[in-house]
Write a structure and sequence with these properties.
The chain is built from no helices and eleven strands. By secondary structure, the protein is mainly beta. A hairpin with a 6-residue loop joins strand 4 and strand 5.
């Protein structure tokens, strides 16, 4: 597995979690990366993306102001700090490596996907 996502779990509404995504093969250093999520019975949706050097980030409207994406290239790891979590944030969260240095929101912009980590927010 190239991308390993971790950090999911059960949290109460209003709480916080930090997800991590480690690239074990170190092939993402010059590529953008992103987070997506998929709730049960719903389509996979874009959450956030970050450029190769961390200088550019984009977010889905639903998470703006609550989630922060970052990366540590030296550690080949990307993070998603999630705050003010709500039950509607419950989903399996996937990390992905983009095809280009700057990542967009479309899933077809990504070439490698992690296995996902489950986030459950209780009300």
């Amino acid at each position: 597995v190239q991308l390993q996502a971790s950090g999911g779990g059960l949290v109460q509404a209003g709480g916080s979690l930090r997800l991590s995504c480690t690239d074990s093969r170190r092939t993402s250093s010059n590529n953008g990366m992103g987070w997506f999520r998929q709730a049960t019975g719903k389509e996979r949706e874009f959450v956030a993306a970050i450029s190769w050097n961390g200088g550019h980030t984009i977010y889905a409207d639903s998470v703006k102001g609550r989630f922060t994406i970052s990366r540590d290239r030296a550690k080949n790891t990307m993070y998603l700090q999630m705050s003010s979590l709500q039950p509607e944030d419950t989903a399996v969260y996937y990390c992905a490596t983009a095809r280009q240095a700057v990542a967009g929101g479309g899933a077809d912009n990504y070439k490698y996907w992690g296995q996902g980590t489950l986030v459950t927010v209780s009300s």
